[in-house]
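Entry type: protein chain
Record version: 2
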Amino acid sequence: MVIASVFYGCNGAFSDLDKIGQFTWNPSLAFPIAKATFGFEDFITNNDTLVFIEKDEEGLIILTYENNDLFSQNAASYLELPDETHTESFSFDSPLLIQLPINLQISKTKFFSFMVEGEERDEIDSVLLKSGELELKMLANFPASGEVKFRFLSLSQNGQLVEITYPWQYSGTQPVLDQIDILDLSDLKMDLTDGGTTVNTFNFEVEITLNYEGQPVLPTNSLEIEVKLLDATFKAIYGKISERTIDPVSDTLKLDFFENLISGSFFLDEPAISINIGNSFGLPVSVNISSFEASNETSTLDLTGDITQPQLINFPTLEQLGDTIRTIITIDNTNSNLPELISMLPTQIIYTFAGTINPQGIADNSFVLNESIVDVDLKIELPLKGRLSDLEASTLFEFDGGEFTNDIDFVLFQIYTNNGFPLSLDIQAVFLDAAGTELEILIDEDNRILEAADVDAEGNVTLSKEKTIQVKVEGDKLQRIQNATTIRIEAVINTTGGGTTSVKILDSYQLEVKLGAQIDFELNVGGS
């Protein structure tokens, strides 16, 4: 384009080039190619929506994985009220052969109870019901008109016991009562203590009133009743809830920011894992990491330390009914081998959490709401403070060597760098053909090292480092890269002091790069 513009601007002077004899012109063009400034985030590729780059008040960069929905299970997963069926027969003890008066009213009351307990043997004092049904079946064959009244001592609404009456008229045919009724339990309170002396006990009374009409009432005359507690759900349960196992949950974390690293030593001073556990059950919960392992293409390492033991989680008291109490468990360099685990450059972490509700079987009264949950959030923080030694990274880029024509004598690249990172870079570019065969390298041994910036005792950069290198591509080297289809950029990274000094990577650090080139080529001019 430069050459074309020159000839276009000089059209008057060179309008008769065909009259000039043929000769070879060897022009040389020098021009800037690019200037760029890179921060640390420019070097990070992240394909995971759960991975973030954060920073603290100092500007220290922190690679963060955060899953706020790792695990969540509500009370309905662990606690339910069982269906129960209870049958009774109600009759009068002896014949009532009453002559006078002709019309007489007689009554009898009987107390009944049945147990409400599931397989877990919870000791339930009371329940605030959310929904459910109480099904009543009644079959009576008394030779008289009358009524049956149910008084449910265990059911109340707004402080009043639930009562319901079913009357009938005797017309000489039997049965006098054959009925099924459904009582809606929504928003009722169920007291299972029998006046505070028992648990899990559903109590009710049945009162029969007969209007004698001249026919004897015999022991064979009876009221058959069946009471069914069906599909009951709760708003709250109070009592002693037995121990239950929380279903284990497993997941795999992909660490994309390590995927291009090949080998070397990568040691972070203060990696940390925070397990944030919320508990709105009115009883303790224990959680433990049943497995936690990091792996790459060649090896696997298990997390070890005190944190593998069950951790007891705080819980709300009755005064905190409806609140979620959170407990944070921290895994770091003080209680685990986490720094060693991260130093192996894992590409994935596989973990499994398990737990137990009421692991100690507390005797004090506890509660569970239908909205009670145990939820677990996970956060992994990797503050970029530490040391790197011979850390190798490699990345492939597409490249079209065919763009270098035979007319070019050589290409001279000039690269200026100002390194504000406390990292030295040993860089090489390797040209590869379509089969992946190495054709040529770009940078000679003397120019490969980009020196790390100086740091103070705290690992902070005090002085950036400048360097200018020239790379000349010509002759056979230029011809060989014409067959290249990709370039592999290789880097060996060390922190200041050859990987022996712990440094910090701040978001203010920058790498400035200026790239220029000079091209020499042959141009045949003239001729007839």
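Comment: Confidence is low (pLDDT under 50) at residues 1-25.
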